Amino acid sequence: MMIELKAAPANIAFDPARTALVIIDMQRDFLEPGGFGETLGNDVSQVRVAIAPCQRVLARAREIGLLVIHTREGHRPDLTDAPPAKINRGNPSARIGAPGPMGRILVRGEPGHDIIPELAPRAGEPVLDKPGKGAFYQTDLEIVLRNGHIDTLLVCGVTTEVCVHTSVREANDRGYRAIVLGDCCASYFPEFHAVGLKMISAQGGIFGWVSSSADLLTALEGGHG
Ligand code: TIU
């Protein structure tokens, strides 16, 4: 059964059986004080607005049995998968691997690397650890999607112009239809968020589509609970 979703630049129909909800990097390091996001000089309250819409979408996705995939940005404790060019920037005391209030910054296994409790993955939901900004780079996302017969991604997460954008561009080049749920994404820079969404749907949907949590929940009403 196809679901018709209100979206920009045009409405889009998707088959829930071939659609995955992909939640990008909703980690304590990006959303809570003391993490990587804050060490970069950002105000984390700017990105926390996406939590509640993500919770609503995640709850509904689970009810209707969508494939739910979570990603986390982070590195091995020995940092062998972290390019020096990524580490060696910013304040030396607040770089990747440095100790922070939630453990070593952006390091796997540390408390700050965890997904925030509000959106904690459930057993059976793939959690992909990625060393880069894109969800496809050096992860097994593509084979997870292929094995799930997925052709469409509903994309949520942070930050809009960094990891969400990179992942959407990667998805688009690989032939997936990426639908970004705008209010389920956020940036430390509101203007980047707004322009980032426009960049996806401009030019006839050059990278994908933009919709919202409310429009998705409306589209899913009836018949799928
Ligand atoms: N800094 C910033 O906006 N984002 C990141 O470093 N990673 C993600 O977006 N996940």
Number of domains: 1
Bound compounds: tricarbonodiimidic diamide
In total, how many beta strands? 10
Backbone shape: globular
Which structural class should the secondary elements be placed in? alpha/beta
Distance between the termini: 13 Å
CATH fold-level topology: Rossmann fold
How does the major sheet shape up? 6 strands, parallel
Strand arrangement, largest sheet? Answer: 7-4-3-8-9-10
Residues in helices, as a percent range: 25-40%
Sequence stretches where pLDDT stays below 50 over 5 or more residues:
none
CATH architecture: 3-Layer(aba) Sandwich
- Number of contiguous helices: 9
Written as H for each helix and E for each strand, in order along the chain, the element string is: EEEHHHHEHEEEHEHEHEH
Please state the average pLDDT score: 96
Radius of gyration: 17 Å
* CATH class membership: Alpha Beta
User: What is the CATH superfamily classification?
Assistant: Isochorismatase-like
Strand content: 15-25%
